[in-house]
Design goal:
- The chain is 36% helix and 19% strand.
- With 155 residues, it is of the alpha+beta class.
- A hairpin with a 6-residue loop joins β2 and β3.
- The mean pLDDT is 95.
Length: 155
């Protein structure tokens, strides 16, 4: 799908706050509210907008520990890697899972209430998995920036 300058401006505004009324967004980009709504619909239908979700405060929900976990697998075949991905992504604690290059095969972002909950996650998901050669954990001390708007490339 080709994105024009209007689409890019709309996406830039929309990803920052999906609650902004189409009228205000249209005024900012130079389109009518109806045109903005039509473009958003098309962007959803074409898979550019994949979800519209709420951003929640982990700490206020009692989720005080974010762990970045680097996992090295024994068997990196497509089948074994898919089995690992299916297993970890089925866990609610795993917020992100990336296949990466370098010393680790996967990097997980795990969010839990406390270290005891993280230990339970490791016990259930990593320690007894015969395909997990090793894993290392970094506990986040300060979430300087969690996600955020993407920098939309110019056309």
């Amino acid at each position: 799908m080709e994105l024009d300058a209007f689409d890019r401006q709309i996406l830039d505004l929309y990803q920052r706050d999906t609650r902004v009324p189409s009228e205000r967004m249209g005024a900012q980009v130079g389109l009518s509210a109806a045109a903005v709504q039509r473009r958003l619909k098309r962007l959803r239908e074409n898979g550019v907008i994949v979800a519209e979700t709420a951003s929640l405060d982990c700490r206020r929900l009692g989720l005080g520990v974010t762990a970045i976990v680097q996992v090295d697998l024994v068997d990196e075949s497509a089948r074994a890697a898919q089995a690992f991905c299916d297993k970890v992504t089925a866990r609610g604690e795993v917020q992100q899972c990336y296949g990466v290059t370098g010393a680790a095969d996967y990097v997980l972002v795990v969010i839990v209430s406390d270290l005891e909950a993280y230990d339970a996650f490791c016990e259930a998901c990593l320690l007894h998995d015969a395909n997990v050669r090793s894993f290392t954990t970094q506990i986040v001390l300060d979430a300087v920036r969690r996600g955020g708007p993407l920098q939309i490339p110019k056309a």
